[in-house]
Amino acid sequence: MRGRFRHAEHVLRVAALFFFGFVAFLVLRSVLIPKDFGLYGFYRAGALDDVKAQPIKYAGRAACEECHAGTYDPPDDDAKAVALAKEDPVKDNKHITLNCEACHGPLFVHADDPEKPVAKVGADKLCLRCHLELKGRPATQPQVVPGDHGDNDPCLSCHKPHRPKTDES
Amino acid sequence: MNQERRDFLRLSGKYIALTGAAAIAWDYVLAAEPQKAPNYTATDHWWGMIIDIDKCIGCGNCVRACKAENDVPLEDGAFRTWVERYRVRTDELDHPMVDSPNGGYDGFTEIDQPGDDVKVFFVPKLCNHCVDSPCTQVCPVGATFHSPDGVVLIDKSRCLGCRYCVQACPYGCRYIDPRTHTADKCTLCYHRITKGLTTACCEACPTGARQLVDLKNPKDPVHAFLRTHKIQVLKPQMATGAKVYYNGLDGSVR
Amino acid sequence: MSGVAGFIYPNEIELQWSILIVLYPFLTGLVAGAFILASLERVFNVAAVRPTYRLALLTALAFLIVAPLPLQMHLGHPERSYEMYLTPHRQSAMAMFGFVYLWYLMAVLVLEIWFDYRKDLVLTWRASHGLKRQFYGALTLWSDDISPAALRIDDKIGRFITIIGIPSAFLLHGYVGFIFGSIKANPWWSTPLMPVVFLFSAMVSGIAAVMLLYIFFCRIRRVPIDMPCVDTIARYLLYAFIIDFSLEMLDLIHRLYEADESLRALDFMVKTRLFVSQILLQILIGTLVPILSLGFVQIVRLSDRVRRTIYVCAGVLTLIGIFAMRWNVVIGGQLFSKSFLGYTTYKVGFATREGLLPAIVIMLLPFAILAVLLKLFPPWESTGHGGPDTGRQKAYSADAIS
What we know:
The complex is a heterotrimer.
Chain A: H1 9-32, H2 46-52, H3 61-68, H4 79-87, H5 100-104, H6 108-112, H7 123-131
Chain B: H1 3-17, H2 20-30, E1 47-52, H3 61-69, E2 81-89, E3 97-99, E4 118-126, H4 134-138, E5 144-146, E6 152-154, H5 164-168, E7 175-177, E8 182-184, H6 190-193, H7 200-204, E9 210-214, H8 222-228, E10 231-232, E11 244-247
Chain C: E1 5-6, H1 19-42, H2 53-66, H3 68-74, H4 83-86, H5 96-127, H6 130-139, H7 148-181, H8 194-220, H9 227-258, H10 261-271, H11 275-299, H12 304-330, H13 332-335, E2 342-343, H14 356-376
Helix pairs in contact in C: 1-2, 1-3, 1-7, 1-8, 1-12, 1-14, 2-5, 2-8, 2-14, 5-6, 5-7, 7-8, 8-9, 8-12, 9-11, 9-12, 11-12
């Protein structure tokens, strides 16, 4: 080596080491970065599909109605219910806007394969979740204090959940 | 009811109740291949939510439905959505008393006396899917991001679990999933809304206090709603561009 | 919920960043501070502190090697941490970590140590046999040119690296301050002063650490302590401390004066949950006592022995105080709810992944590494840069060439 660089050989060795390290880094990067990274933004595009692939648990009201459209239309052999339905048309039934699964739990599996069983609904605790009198609940929400309403009888002794308005009210 | 009528009702119910696109998607859903459902172009949508405080009864259905739909751990500290109860004394507007027992999972029990001079209301909260979200800004590796349709999502296969995003969220909507050791939060039920369904929490809400909205859809009732109601977002001073719009939100809400 | 007062968001029940995240800025702070002390001599020609030059560099290296360990033990997926090198999100301060760390480790510290030690490495290489010979040979990259011209080049390059190293050290620790300071969601952290406060407290802790280590090793080697050296270091410690304290007080006074919504939550927290760590440990014992005692030394003539005692006490208290400062920022910032309506507590586990035991091990590890480094690269009887105050000419004088 000539001139000024005669005594700088060690510097060149270090520089070469760093340079090759940098090159190795670049090579590794191109290998390891997922191919679909950055397609739509600073993320791996496949992540969108990963999220979309999550299994569905709640079928939604429309799915239930495919088979159970008659829920709010009583079966012919329930005379009392049929009589009630005549006076108390479906349009006044406040529960009709509820999603079935709000009380019956997630039922996608059942909607997919009706052979699969449906869990029983535990009535009283469930009713009080929405209907317990609480400060903060709007007045439009029917609310009761359990002791004052019906002597602590089970809710179902007077109310049918699919047609909760009783003939006494 | 005989079989023919049942079939007729089923078919007509399907095509009346569902739009054409959702009907096609529904076939895939029923065929247990929901991920292949076509007819969803992300850039046609811009998702948000409306929460009507005047309608919320604090039943906790949304919290339960979310935990069930998204397989969220039932333990404390892992809530994709939760309900807070605010109790504001009219002579102490700066000091609201707030509680959220188990995030509202089991509903609430009464803690006020009948005559108490206190204003009470329920505030459901979730990820606000902010347009300028601080959480996506701070992620070091691009593991959390905005989808093209405005939903903030997490790539669980890239998340390091550094927890920076949890620190950066002003709303406390993120947590670390103890099973995957990655960040987790509300996905706006992305797996449902991309197939024409609504979110689990909106589906479960008995009073319609929570409504999924698509701001890019000109027919969505959100536009009329935003015009005719007094709307707020949480922590507007943070300028996060939150897309969860609250109707009837009191000034004491934090 | 035990330990919770008032209301916290349901997801806030668990603190996100633990004692390990307190350790990380403490360790990198020591690195930056030690390096700044070394640069005092190399760049600013403060010849008095030369006896600590090499010790400071090796101390910085030992702590830098350990610095990623608390982070790795904290991550949910440490095996994915390489992703920061592949897809660093340029908007995230934390994404800088991988590159800033690598830059500082390789391009600054390792190179500077290499260029400064090269002559001694070559001499050791020539004088040893077997495995040791191969080891030192590899370290020198098998180049054994230690002529005066080569050493002159080494000196020039070393000086250049130190000059670059100063802003690099600022970056290494300043970005940690920015990680906290840029979080608008957290008012305890969110302030533009945060990177600057972190930086100056880093310098204070690094200078104090090297001073203590120097006194300690002089004692062990039964070598007289170079008092002008230690006096100078203590003076720079005082200067850095005054700036650091002023900045922290400025932040506090500003908050108290503006009294915005977050102050009520923070004020209460400082008066209750953070009282011991903030008021007592950080401000009183960890800052005021060292500042006053170091200032006292500047004003009143004292004997060597008394000065040494004051320096050792001040140094230890300083390190405790700076650790407390990191604790108060990291843990303190998570004790109050973002709703400003409540507080939670932090319970450190002991033998858990982010517990007290790993924290203690991580704190002790750099000293173990330093002991190894001191053996491999003795900083004391060198013919190069860091020896006793003999002037830079000695580095390549005729009798030093073999």
